[in-house]
Design a protein that fits this description.
Number of helices: 5
Structural class: mainly alpha
Radius of gyration: 12 Å
Order of helices and strands: HHHHH
Number of strands: 0
Strand content: under 5%
Oligomer: single chain
Distance between the termini: 23 Å
């Protein structure tokens, strides 16, 4: 996705404000966030992404929990 590409330094970037605005009305709770994060991590592992890259990406994803979780 464009968000993941932005975490990896790609040409697309999303501000915290854009992420908050786009998730605000979705009612995402901690359990939802955890499930998506788990699936994302498993997908990276299944495709052989280097563990150090996975760790960085997941750290970036988790650092935005407060912005995405609203329910």
């Amino acid at each position: 996705s464009k968000f993941i590409a932005s975490l990896l330094g790609g040409p697309v970037s999303f501000s915290d404000e854009q992420l908050e605005r786009s998730h605000r009305n979705l009612g995402i709770n901690d359990a939802n966030f955890d499930e998506v994060a788990r699936l994302l991590k498993e997908t990276f592992e299944d495709y052989g992404v280097d563990e150090s890259d996975i760790s960085k990406i997941m750290g970036d994803v988790n650092s935005r929990r407060r912005i995405i979780v609203s329910g």
